[in-house]
Design brief:
alpha+beta; 3-stranded antiparallel β-sheet
Length: 126
């Protein structure tokens, strides 16, 4: 996990919108990102999802309806997200949350391409 540097934007607000399953994160540089629970789950920084070495990690499928049931602070540098599918082993550093927001369009397209390459059409993963 990347560490904090003096330039790492710090969150000023973290708000879970339960009905829409969106985590809204505002940063001290003025950026505000709305990250779906599904997106956060499929890009979990855990070894279970990322894999234990180089490579694309483990493709996560069937996560459209996943929700957050807990958000736990980890020091002054990260949060641990607890999902209703039992996944809770990823620590989301401020830097990683910022990256997920900043690079959302690219990362989401990459995820959809990986699903397609695996022969799993998006929306039929239940």
């Amino acid at each position: 996990m990347a560490g904090l540097t003096p330039d790492t934007p710090q969150p000023t607000e973290i708000k879970l919108h339960k009905a829409s399953r969106v985590l809204e994160v505002a940063f001290d540089d003025g950026q505000r990102y709305q990250l779906t629970c599904e997106y956060l789950r499929v890009y979990s920084p855990s070894a279970e999802v990322r894999g234990h070495g180089a490579g694309p990690g483990v493709l996560q499928v069937g996560k459209q309806n996943v929700s957050l049931v807990g958000i736990e602070p980890v020091g002054n540098y990260a949060i641990k997200l607890v999902f209703d599918d039992g996944h809770d082993s990823g620590l989301y550093s401020w830097e990683y949350l910022y990256e997920l927001g900043r690079d959302h369009a690219t990362k989401w397209q990459d995820y959809l391409h990986r699903l397609a390459a695996a022969g799993v059409p998006y929306g039929s993963q239940h």
